[in-house]
Amino acid sequence: MGLGRVLGAALAVSVTLVVVAAALWAGLPPCGVAAAAYLAGFLLLGGLGLVLVVLPRLCRPGLRVEDGRLVVELGACGRLVAPLAAVREVRVVERVGLLARLAGTAVPGLYYSGLYMLRGGGRARVFAERLHGLVEVVLDGGERLLVGGDALRALGELRERLRGREGGGSVAGGLRREGPGVVLGLAAVVVAASTVASLVLLLAVPQRVPLHYGKGWVPDRWGTRAELAAVVAVVLGLSWLFVVLAWRILDPVSSLLLAVAASGLSLLALSTVLLSVPSICPAAWSPAGG
Fold first, then answer.
1. Three-state DSSP class for residue 180
2. Is 51 helix (H, G, I), strand (E, B) or coil?
3. Segment holding 93, helix H or strand E
4. What is the Cα–Cα distance from 157 to 64, expressed in whole angstroms?
5. What is the pLDDT averaged over residues 225-241?
6. Which of 65, 151, 163, 242 could bridge across to 262 with cysteines, CB 3.0–4.6 Å?
7. How far is the first Cα of the chain from the last one, in angstroms, to the nearest whole number?
8. DSSP symbols for 101-165
9. Kind of pairing, strands 123-128 and 144-147?
10. Residue 269 near residue 198, CB atoms below 8 Å
11. Using alpha carbons only, what angle is made at residue 230 by residues 224 and 235, rounded to the nearest 5 degrees?
């Protein structure tokens, strides 16, 4: 493993360790249902760092031809498809220099997924573990794909199919994403359930509530229900934004990461509301706060 891959993996693992250390320092909330939501949210957000480390295996890129379509396989993250008739050119690129990431996910030296500006001009969608030995696919309209992983294995078949096709005109329909549908669906359900539960539980929250907890989950700052509702609304709003982006963006890898982040944030928002309901979590309230 090269130095870049080692540094990328170390960075991703460090993020996870920081999040887990923060959770361990604070401990779990003093009531079961709030503790469950809090722990699940922290594990999802903290686990993002580990997901980044295993992206090369989880979302290993590759190319194949299927039912008259070009398929960019990305493992468990889903895939991108385009009509085979939309492919204008296929070639091997020995090395690629990336100038800037415009959209997507990158763990330098470990995994690249998304839209990038290239050194020397132009931009391309890159799906690769390393930046050498890539297959470049040029589609109608000039859109470029740079695919690593197992893409070279499909190069011969792809060239053969392109030589044997009829016609050379442009076709309707471009690149589109397929998957990860199950993950996105689960994320939408988790965020929706957390939102509904939070809205219902806010009706049972008193006018004066804890807004911050110190070590041992002892409240050290108090405020109004309106302040709590504003904080929860911001976190849930961000969760919904992530869900919408996860469904709309083209990059399957970023969609997966956004879905996980949305679920984690919404569960943390729910745990905050649960802590603020005395009948659900009386141990989280200090007599001094009344």
1. coil
2. helix
3. strand 87-95
4. 8
5. 96
6. 242
7. 58
8. EEEEEEETTTEEEEEEEETTS-EEEEEESSSEEEEEEEEGGG-EEEE-TTGGGGHHHHHHHHHH-
9. parallel
10. yes
11. 135
Entry pTM: 0.83
Distance CA 134, CA 224 (A): 57
Calpha distance 250→104 (Å, rounded):
9
For the chain, how are helix, strand and coil distributed in percent, rounded to 5?
50, 25, 20
Q: Are strands 219-224 and 98-107 parallel, antiparallel or unpaired?
A: unpaired
Last residue of a domain, one of 176, 209, 233: 176
- pLDDT (tens digit per residue) in 2-40: 555 555 556 556 666 676 676 666 677 888 899 899 989
9, HSE (Cβ side, Cα atoms, 13 Å): 12
Residue 286: band (very low, low, confident or very high) from pLDDT cuts 50, 70, 90: low
Give the type of residue at 251.
D
Domain hosting 231: range is 13-57+180-289
At 279, the pLDDT band (50, 70, 90 cuts) reads confident
User: Domain for residue 53, yes or no?
Assistant: yes
Cα distance between residue 76 and residue 67, in whole Å: 21
Question: What distance in Å separates the CA atoms of residue 247 and residue 150, rounded to the nearest whole number?
Answer: 26
265/42 Cα distance (integer angstroms): 8
- The number of distinct structural domains making up the chain is 2
Sign of CA dihedral 124, 128, 129, 131: negative
Q: Are residues 198 and 279 in the same domain?
A: yes
Residues 112 and 46 in one domain: no
pLDDT digit string, tens, across residues 106-148: 887 788 999 999 998 899 999 998 898 999 999 988 899 999 9
Question: Rounded to whole angstroms, how far apart are CA atoms 187 and 136?
Answer: 33
The Cα–Cα gap between 97 and 118 comes to 6
